[in-house]
């Protein structure tokens, strides 16, 4: 038992928790790498700034997003897709930093998915009140590759459902340094993030940052 106040200063001992068939939580797996990951996020957002994408239905997303890697996930009136260049600048997305690539491959390996080589990393920023409604990640070409999702900063309540939007959802707390690896029979499970509660994180202040690594093409 630890007190919430100390969660991010005294991380849990790293361990694996099953989430569903094909999905595991690697508690504290990214805790040691977190400062380097956050420095890299600052470099990425200096060239590909945070933006609020609009869904094909015309809704402004409350999550602010950017990308790094060979492909970036974007949404606009034309739909959801991966693009090799940032539509804001016309330039390629920032390269995937070496600490990102290494962490994603090691986490996938630890979850039983050897050889994961992400070509896309969606970077998400949550502020208090930001939420992500239930969705499937289905814009990737090869659904055999897992997704590796890294949580940094303020804790969030992750909603994890089934293959139908109406299936009941489990609520899972994801704290700074936790990594979710997600593939196989869970690859198309519906999931989302409940509105972020305010807090003050020693490294991230009032933010939660999520890195979602994919094999897009
Ligand atoms: C987030 N994550 O945690 C949003 N998608 O901020 C996702 O949408 C997600 O964590 C697919 C697999 C894992 C994820
Ligand atoms: Fe997702």
TrEMBL record:
GO terms for molecular function: dioxygenase activity. Its cofactor is Fe(2+). The keyword Translocase does not apply. It holds the Pfam family 2OG-FeII_Oxy_2. It comes from Cupriavidus malaysiensis. InterPro entries: Alkb, AlkB-like, AlkB-like_sf, Oxoglu/Fe-dep_dioxygenase_dom. PANTHER family: ALKYLATED DNA REPAIR PROTEIN ALKB-RELATED, NUCLEIC ACID DIOXYGENASE ALKBH1. Keywords: Dioxygenase, Iron, Metal-binding, Oxidoreductase. The keyword Iron applies. This is Alpha-ketoglutarate-dependent dioxygenase AlkB. Residues 117-217 form the Fe2OG dioxygenase domain.
């Amino acid at each position: 038992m630890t007190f919430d106040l100390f969660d991010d200063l005294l991380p849990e001992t790293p361990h694996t928790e099953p989430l569903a068939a094909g999905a595991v939580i690697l508690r504290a797996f990214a805790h040691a790498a977190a400062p380097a990951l956050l420095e890299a996020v600052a470099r990425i957002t200096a060239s590909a700034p945070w933006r609020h994408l609009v869904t094909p239905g015309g809704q402004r997303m409350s999550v602010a997003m950017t990308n790094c890697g060979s492909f970036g996930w974007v949404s606009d009136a034309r739909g959801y897709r991966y693009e090799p260049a940032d539509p804001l600048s016309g330039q390629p997305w920032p390269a995937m930093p070496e600490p990102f690539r290494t962490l994603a491959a090691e986490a996938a390996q630890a979850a039983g998915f050897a050889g994961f080589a992400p070509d896309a990393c969606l970077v998400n920023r949550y502020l208090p009140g930001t939420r992500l409604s239930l969705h499937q990640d289905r814009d990737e070409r090869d659904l055999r590759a897992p997704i590796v999702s890294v949580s940094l900063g303020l804790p969030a309540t992750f909603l994890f459902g089934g293959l139908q939007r109406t299936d009941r959802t489990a609520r899972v707390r994801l704290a700074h340094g936790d990594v979710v690896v997600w593939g196989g029979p869970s690859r198309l499970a519906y999931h989302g993030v409940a509105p972020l509660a305010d807090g003050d994180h020693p490294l991230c202040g009032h933010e939660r940052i999520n890195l979602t690594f994919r094999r897009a093409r």
